[in-house]
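User: Second chain of the day. Same drill as before.
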Amino acid sequence: MLYDDTVILLFAKAPVEGEVNTRLIPDIGVQAATRLQYDLVHQRLSMLTHADLCKVHLLCAPGAKHEFFLQCGTQYPIILLTQSAGDIGKRIFNAVSAALQQYKYCIVIGSDAPALDAAKIKQAIEELRAGINVVFVPAEDGGYVLIGLQHAYDFLFHGINWGTSEVMQQSANKLKNCNVSYLELAGSWDIDRLEDYQRYLRMKKQ
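Assistant: Same format as last time:
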């Protein structure tokens, strides 16, 4: 393990039919959307395990005792935690606040960005260790697929239009207004639309 002072928080939903990848269901159907979620969570956990960068906490919804997550906990060297209540901003802030009581640096990712690799996560950790306060990997759709922090900034997770193309810009504006240093690394993509799903399928074949 390279960084014993760092933790990765992986936010994920259990692959429950009709409750995951709902934007894709009209195009690919419920079963394919559910299977996609199952595959994505395992893909992320496998990548993180093989990279062995630092500790990994899996932030689970609806809860850490869901059968799917319990199975993940036996298969991978991870800690299972239940996501808090509230919108995604509140859930991230609560998880980051708790994590930074134990660790110096914290990386937050989701399960829906399969192109985000270990090298990019390692780069984000190195930037934090070099003194940058907040590190992002922006998403092509205007959000971000990674945020790294060494402080839990409450303001960074309030007043954000989550799920829109404004997320990255709104976050950057808040940091600028508060004179907090941040860095945007090269962007990546996540799976929201049919084109993204097709891109993922092509990536899997490579």
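Residues 30-51 form the longest helix (22 residues).

User: Great, on to the next one.
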